[in-house]
Amino acid sequence: MNYLAHAYLSFGDPEVLVGNLISDFIKGKKKYDYPAGIQKGIALHRAIDTFTDEHPVTKEAKDILRPAYRLYSGAFVDVLYDHFLATDVNEFPKDSLFDFSQQVYSSVDRQIHWLPERFAKMFPYMKTQNWLFNYHTMWGTEKSLEGVVRRSRYLTESTTAYQLFQQHYQLFSDCYRQFWKDLMPFARQQYEILRANNL
Predict the structure, then answer these.
(1) SS (H, E, C) the chain
(2) Which residue range(s) make up the domain with 41?
(3) How many domains are there within the chain?
(4) pLDDT tens per residue, the chain (199 residues)?
């Protein structure tokens, strides 16, 4: 899952939200530099990523992208899952996605001193361009796919990924729905376990 899902699966917990969003930018023992709540968010992010990567439906979705992108196919699927979450009226009815995105940015702003340098440099763009909200649009999803390429060492284009997204839209949508019904209770359970445990 990408930024929208990790924010949503923080269950309104401000410190867990920050940890969930910055986890990919925190390596090794650096996580111990953060308060317990943020550490829990980092751990939750990593549990969600492992669950996502190992889910058979995710493997089916990655198979569409793997011939063109090999090991990076999972990063593109993460973005596509965020698109389908953003358009899921069961999770974001009416105008609630926009309101949710603003709540996330405000919560992160209040804890901005905890952001690692690379995320801190990216966050103003996320906020001003409203990445979380724009996942619900095709052009916003296309821009997010381009972002995968910008953050990678070896990729040169995302045009093929976007074309495959369009061509196999229903298949990716079906994969998301099957996957999400398993991920949501898993993430909630992991959150409750982490919240109950002292780090």
Answers:
(1) CCHHHHHHCCCCCHHHHHHHHHHHHCCHHHHHHCCHHHHHHHHHHHHHHHHHHHCHHHHHHHHHHHHHHHHHHHHHHHHHHHHHHHCCCCCCCCCHHHHHHHHHHHHHHCCHHHCCHHHHHHHHHHHHCCHHHHCCCHHHHHHHHHHHHHCCCCCCCCHHHHHHHHHCHHHHHHHHHHHHHHHHHHHHHHHHHHHHCCC
(2) 3-196
(3) 1
(4) 799 999 999 999 999 999 999 999 999 889 999 999 999 999 999 999 999 999 999 999 999 999 999 999 999 999 999 999 999 999 999 889 999 999 999 999 999 999 999 999 999 999 999 999 999 999 999 999 999 999 888 899 999 999 999 999 999 999 999 999 999 999 999 999 999 986 5
Distance CA 61, CA 169 (A): 11
Distance, in Å, from the CA atom of 36 to the CA atom of 155, rounded to the nearest integer, reads 36
Using the structure block, give the residue that is written with the tokens 């993460």.
78
pTM: 0.94
Identity of residue 78: D
